[in-house]
Amino acid sequence: MTITNQKRIDEQLVDFICKDNQISDRESISINDNLLEDGIIDSLALFAIISFIEDNFNIEVKNEHVISDNFGTIEAMRNYIIRTLRLQERV
Fold first, then answer.
1. Please, which residues have CB within 8 angstroms of residue 56's CB and are 6 or more apart in sequence?
2. How much is the pTM?
């Protein structure tokens, strides 16, 4: 996946998180911020993000994949999306 596509995924995630959590300054969120630990989102918002990812990237997020390594930061979410899409291509 190209850097342009990676940035596009980052932007989609940031846009959704800002809209869903009523954050007006999208520049205040870094792709490396720990979203839950830093209080940017709560657990309910995480479920909304997972639903967004499933709907927009046509992937199924398995319960066992909902860990901070995959969903703690925007970068982690992006990497999870890319890995999952690549695995789907192999099937």
1. 12
2. 0.91
Residue type, position 2, single letter? T
- The two three-digit tokens of residue 11, written as one number: 């932007």
- Give me the amino acid identity at 79: N
Estimate the crossing angle of helix 43-57 against helix 3-20, to 10 degrees. Answer: 140
SS (H, E, C) the chain: CCHHHHHHHHHHHHHHHHHHCCCCCHHHCCCCCCCCCCCCCCHHHHHHHHHHHHHHHCCCCCHHHCCHHHHCCHHHHHHHHHHHHHHHHHC
Tell me the pLDDT tens digit for each residue of 28-72: 899 999 999 999 999 999 999 999 999 999 999 999 999 999 999
| Overall number of domains in the chain | 1
User: Any idea what the CATH number is for the domain that residue 75 is in?
Assistant: 1.10.1200.10
For residue 79, which phi and psi values (nearest 5 degrees)?
A: -65, -35
Token pair belonging to 69: 């390594």
